[in-house]
Amino acid sequence: MEDDMNNKFTKTGDLEDRFKWEKERTAGIKRFLNAYRNGLAKQTTYHSIKHDAKKNSILQSQIYNNLNDIEKKLIQNES
């Protein structure tokens, strides 16, 4: 117990320094992740718009409509 008192409880300054360092490190990580999150949100929006444009293009395609009509006829004939 004397060893603990001499080595652990008297080194509160070291513990405070480690705490401050860890606090600064985690604050830096938080700033990085917030910046990364904003960029990721922009990319997600861009790809969502791109996907919707391609989806609309396919839905308006004459070939898609023809294949869809054929599929409906085949389903009706099976019934």
Descriptive account of the structure:
This protein has 79 residues and is mainly α. It has one domain. It is 90% helix and 0% strand. The chain is built from three helices and no strands. The longest helix is centred in the middle third of the chain and has 48 residues. The protein is rod-shaped. It starts with a helix and ends with a helix.
Question: What's the gist of this structure?
Answer:
This protein is an all-alpha fold and 79 residues long.
Looking at the structure, what is the overall shape? rod-shaped
- Which structural class do the helices and strands define? mainly alpha
Q: Which regions are unreliable across 5 or more consecutive residues at pLDDT < 50?
A: none
Domains counted in the coordinates: how many?
Answer: 1
Tell me the total number of β-strands.
0
User: Could you estimate the helical fraction of the residues in percent?
Assistant: over 70%
Q: Output the helix-strand order.
A: HHH
Distance between the termini: 86 Å
Radius of gyration: 31 Å
Mean pLDDT over all positions: 88
In DSSP terms (H or I, runs of 4 or more residues), the helix count works out at 3
The main β sheet shows up as: none
Provide the β-strand percentage band: under 5%
Oligomer category? single chain
